[in-house]
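Reviewers asked in the last cycle whether our approach scales beyond single polypeptides. To address this, we selected a multi-component target totalling 488 residues and predicted its structure end to end. The input consisted of the following lines:
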Amino acid sequence: MGDPGALGRYLHWLLFIGLALLVLFIEALPFNLGATSWPGPQAMALLAMVWVLRRPDYMPVVIFAVLALIADLFQMRPPGLMAGLLVLVLEFLRSRHHAAREWPFVLEWAVVSALLSMVLVANRLILGILAVPQPALGIEVQQLISSILFYPIILAFSVWALRITHIKPGEGGIRL
Amino acid sequence: MARDRGNSDEYVRPIRRILVGALIFVLFAMFLFWRIDSPRMDRFRAQIVDQVLPSFDWALAPVTALGDMVSNFQSYAQIYEQNQELRRELRQMKSWKEAALQLEQKNAKLLDLNNVRLDPTLTYVTGVVLADSGGPFRQSVLLNVGARDGIRDGWATTDGLGLVGRISGVGRNSSRVILLTDVNSRVPVTLQPSGQRAVLSGDNAQAPLLDFVDTPELVRPGDRVVTSGDGGVFPPGLLVGQVALGRDKRLRVRLSADYERLEFLRILRSQPREQILDPGALLPPPVSSLPALSEVAPDAQDDPPAEEGGDG
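The resulting structure, written as structure tokens, was:
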């Protein structure tokens, strides 16, 4: 709409879509058939969380919701449930992004870990109430652990390689 | 996407909140719809995957080939030892081949003597594994054959040696195979030689679990496991694997199919089995003694096979 930040914003939307599709593509490769030894992290959700805490305008909720739904459809999860929970988490973080500017890294990490754990518990609870067969708790906890351990890596990648950093008070004024 | 900036803040923010609420509502409604009418949603899912994944084919092929090359390269390192081992195995196999040939001849002779009629209807289609789109929790692979090739839900797939899984979800050009290790996989099996019936149930571990074994004392590690054909989903007698005792002291099955290298899968066309619904008709007394009813006699001639069945 003619404002100076628009182009950068659209480019970052495209960048996020590209990264998310890349993650989906890698997960779809036919390696590690049979039983996997240790499940990988929920990379797309982690990326979205890092971005929304730093540049909420780069991380529109509709794009994330659609991508999360596609991931649900492709990975044979119940469609919509995990996507809905992750959108809730994302909106919670978005409402805190002003405060998050002051958070030390450890606090941010703890908040993200707590939210991911809550998503796991809520997911299992809802599936349990509706009597949907679900995977063993152990393997989901393993995935939670690898997600938590991967958060700093994805954070470092976003901050140093993609330059997704907090907006300084004087610098432009895109608020969301 | 609602953007709020400047002085329009206090108008846009509530609208945005409503939109996000609606978005979350739609997602959860989709989940509930899936829970209520899962076949329709799964058909929709199969359609989407069917549209998208084959178009990934050009990208999947080189990456997959690269991965295979890496794992092949690793095996070059031990090529000498492998060669030695293969020679040894080949020698063993030759003696086994001899034994097998003799047994086959003997078997054919015995079958002939017993008048056994084998099931002639098993033919197969072979498909290439396209992708593993199951994620870490669902053990499934995608094949490049689908409804176009006459694939139907429920057909068994093998890798040529052992059972791999069952078709679950067919698109036009692709179909999904639920592997035996998946949490949702339940297959009725027979353990040989004890003849026990059991259910093979996947639990995401490499070796699926044996459930509902009548007398586990009769089962020994190393026993052969084949499908029993109960329930009419799988043809009976397909090799599944061997019984093994898990680390948790429960009976598991070491699968004969090589799950590390699923490249081509064979889909067995199983025909629906004939159902015998008739409980058997009442058998009238021999009619020859009643001259008045002699014209009914040709109809009564149809019944003797049923009588044999009733005896056995």
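Helices of chain A lie at 6-28, 43-54, 61-74, 81-95, 97-100, 105-129, 137-161. We regard this as preliminary and will revisit it once experimental data from Aim 1 are available.
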